[in-house]
Amino acid sequence: MNKTNWIILFINSVVLLLLFIFVVYPFFKIFVSSMYIDITYLGLRKFVFLDNYFYVLSDYKYWNSLYNSFRFGIIAFLIELVLGFWLAYLIWKNENNKLLRISILIPWALPTAIMALAWRFFLNEQYGIIPKFFSIFGIENIFLSNFTWAFIWMVIIDVWKNTPFIAIMFYSALKGINKELFEVIDLEKGNFYHRIFWVILPISIPAISGALLFRLLYALVIFDLPYVLTGGGPANSTKTIPMYIYENFFKYLDIGYASSLTVISIILIFIISILFMEFVKKIFLYYQK
Asked: Which of 5, 121, 140, 185 gives 20 to 30 Å between its CA and that of 250?
């Protein structure tokens, strides 16, 4: 082999080694732990095979956390997808407006924990500026202690913070579109609908499908925002799967059960990733016809 092939072989070997160290081995370790009752403060470690997985089926807290994660992830992602596209289109149509681009990016640049603390302060029942503002219009009890509003605020805050990420991805795809395509549509007396669904979306979505998948999965396994904003309350109404795993591992020190929850979550994420990429592929093939 020549020098180039040796370099390629070396790089691939390093990548595979890192993949094994940081992905394969940890997953194998977690899978083995999931077959034990492993409670450290009791000094208990007992092989139970799949009992932890069977217990998940009857664990109400798990199913509630799973429901919260999916409900939050899907709603937040769909809103961010729509708003992110329109923000990207707005930036693309006003490329010379630097103030617009900077103002849109600011929320995404803020650390999630600090941003969540700020929103928690704004929504405080005693001195929060947001409840005081809404009380002017007769809208009361919109605090984080309210079951419905706690979830709504969590979605609103996540949309406010992460929509710029999708907007950036869409904008990068829009920058690569040949503007002659729009001239052809104008010559054919096309309208705004034809610009969006005949040119922009068919080109943009396949180009940023990886980024969209990343954002969807991040929304499904969100931890920092609900942990800081609500702590999973009130009454577990905003507790997500990562929070429940964290609770079992660090609060109850039940390593075996936390490991089984982690394995199930990884499998679910893997399935969702495959389904999402197949969906994007079908959309792309549909527009290629």
From this structure: 121
**Could you give the CA distance from residue 245 to residue 263 in angstroms, rounded to a whole number?**
11
Q: What is the pLDDT of residue 155?
A: 92
Of 269, 262, 268, give the one whose Cα is nearest residue 31. Answer: 262
- Total domains in the chain come to 1
Q: Would you state the structure tokens that stand for residue 42, as one six-digit string?
A: 């009791």
- Inform me whether the pLDDT recorded for 288 exceeds 70: no
281/226 Cα distance (integer angstroms): 33
E strand intervals along the chain: 36-39, 44-47
| CB-based contacts of 137-144 (< 8 A; 24+ apart in sequence) | 144/120, 144/229, 144/230, 144/233, 144/234
Q: Beta partners for 35?
A: none
| Within-domain flag for 23 | no
Taking alpha carbons only, the member of 175, 163, 179, 262 closest to residue 211 is 163
Separation CA 102–CA 93 (nearest Å): 15
- The predicted-structure confidence for 203-220, as pLDDT tens digits, reads as follows 777 777 778 888 888 888
| Cβ–Cβ < 8 Å for 242, 266 | no
CATH of the domain at 118: 1.10.3720.10
Compute the distance between CA of residue 147 and CA of residue 281 in angstroms, rounded to an integer.
38
